Amino acid sequence: MPARRSRIRPEILEKESRALALRRDGATFEQIANVLGYKSAMGAWEAYRRALTRIPAAKAAELDEAAAWAAFVAQTHARMRPEAKALANEAAEAWKAADAARWQLTYAINRTWQ
Fold it and tell me: What secondary structure letter does DSSP report for 55?
């Protein structure tokens, strides 16, 4: 009989993806553990590492670049006038929507690899 492939439950993949996104947004592993319900920061770190291994290297590099860009935007945002901040907030929301769509695509690709 062929070897049975392990299926990772979608809720586990989602939790790991959220750990990766939270870390990308600057959360500590302790904070990630509290938000996602892990017993310790080590559990959050392990979920983060699993999520990194599930995405292609190019996607990981893209996420690192996005994190650097987000830090730059946050610094610039702190110095903006109120009307410019409103536009920046709209752009940030659009970015989050695009990022969510990328995560859905990544999840779909991971399902085809399993």
Answer: S
Phi-psi bin for 17: left (phi > 0), alpha (psi -120 to 50), beta? alpha
- Where in the sequence is the domain holding 78, given as residue range(s)? 10-113
Confidence (pTM): 0.47
Angle made by CA atoms 67, 72, 75, in degrees to the nearest 5: 125
Number of domains, the chain: 1
In a domain, 39, yes or no: yes
Residue 30 lies inside a defined structural domain of this protein: yes
CA dist 106 → 86, 90, 93, 102 (Å): 30, 25, 20, 6
pLDDT band at 35 (very low <50, low <70, confident <90, very high): very high
2-11 tens-digit pLDDT: 555 557 788 8
4 falls within a domain: no
Structural domain includes residue 50: yes
Going by the DSSP 8-state scheme, the letter that residue 95 receives in this structure is: H
